[in-house]
Amino acid sequence: MTWQAPALQDQEFKLFQKLLYDTTGIALNDGKKPLVSGRLMSRLRHFELRTFDDYFRLVKRDAVECQMMTDLLTTNETRFFREPAHFVFMREKLLAMKGSRGVIRAWSAACSSGEEPYTMAMTCAETLGIDGGFDILGSDISQRVLDRAERGVYSMERAEGLAPDLLKKYCLRGVRSNEGTFCISRELRRHVKFRQINLLSPPNDLGHFDFIFLRNVMIYFDAVTRKQIVDRMMHVLKPGGFFVIGTAESLISVTDQLETAAPHVYRRRS
């Protein structure tokens, strides 16, 4: 019998809504029903399942498939030097810290395919030197995008936002079969590590950071979850360290441990 694509029923959508919220903190509104249907349909086709309820039961008993579902339903939009004023600010603060803070540590807490942590690394290298003391952690809940980030290979179209001198200095253009791509240089990549982290339950061995970027992800959390996540991050942000959010986001009523340092940039109170 030929497989036929099923319709996502309201009660089935609510099951996926709750599961994604419980596992990641991401709150899908009711308008996301077509998105859920469209992104998960390929998995139903792969397993030749007749209903979304069948797929939900599979996800509940199979951790690998649950991760696949999470990868498909989480948005991973990013680019190099996105919201560039944040990196201008970072460079100014790095200049002030230079030589007085030891190794500078920064965390890109929703790094997607790696453009943000590599941008942070370029900013540090331009300010402190490529052999300067800085470490960047990039994390995401999706292992699929982290695998891409670790490779550090991008199509030339992704170079938009990268100044030509930075592209030449920190990237290698692909040749022959890799033409049309570029990769981040080994010298820069050695400063950047990637790790799968669920922001609802971050590990206890992260250490402390001078900068935390949590940009363009809190819009997917409800108020309770935003507060929980930010509170946990305050434990690993150094006093006087900087917390950066997206330009469409706000920390109003989220925490009293931060004070405004610049638009959408906050400093942890000493």
Write the layout of secondary structure elements.
Elements: H1 10-24, H2 33-47, H3 52-61, H4 63-73, H5 85-97, E1 104-108, H6 115-128, E2 134-140, H7 143-151, E3 153-155, H8 164-170, E4 171-173, E5 181-184, H9 186-189, E6 192-196, E7 209-214, H10 223-234, E8 237-245, E9 258-262, E10 265-268
Parallel strand pairs: 1-2, 1-7, 2-6, 7-8
Antiparallel strand pairs: 3-5, 4-5, 8-10, 9-10
Helix pairs in contact: 3-4, 5-6
Question: How is this structure best described in words?
Answer:
The termini are far apart. This protein folds into 2 domains: 10-73, Chemotaxis receptor methyltransferase CheR, N-terminal domain (Chemotaxis Receptor Methyltransferase Cher, domain 1), CATH 1.10.155.10; 85-152 and 187-268, Vaccinia Virus protein VP39 (Rossmann fold), CATH 3.40.50. It is globular, with a radius of gyration of 20 Å. The mean pLDDT is 92. The chain has 270 residues and is an alpha/beta fold. The strands form 2 sheets. Strands 6-2-1-7-8-10-9 form a 7-stranded mixed beta sheet, with helices on one face. Strands 3-5-4 form a 3-stranded antiparallel beta sheet. The chain is built from 10 helices and 10 strands.
CATH class of the largest domain: Alpha Beta
Question: What would the average pLDDT be, to the nearest integer?
Answer: 92
Counting DSSP E segments of at least 2 residues, the number of strands comes to 10
What would CATH call the homologous superfamily of the largest domain?
Vaccinia Virus protein VP39
State the distance separating the first and last CA atoms: 67 Å
**CATH fold descriptor of the largest domain:** Rossmann fold
Backbone CA Rg: 20 Å
What sequence of helices (H) and strands (E) makes up the elements? HHHHHEHEHEHEEHEEHEEE
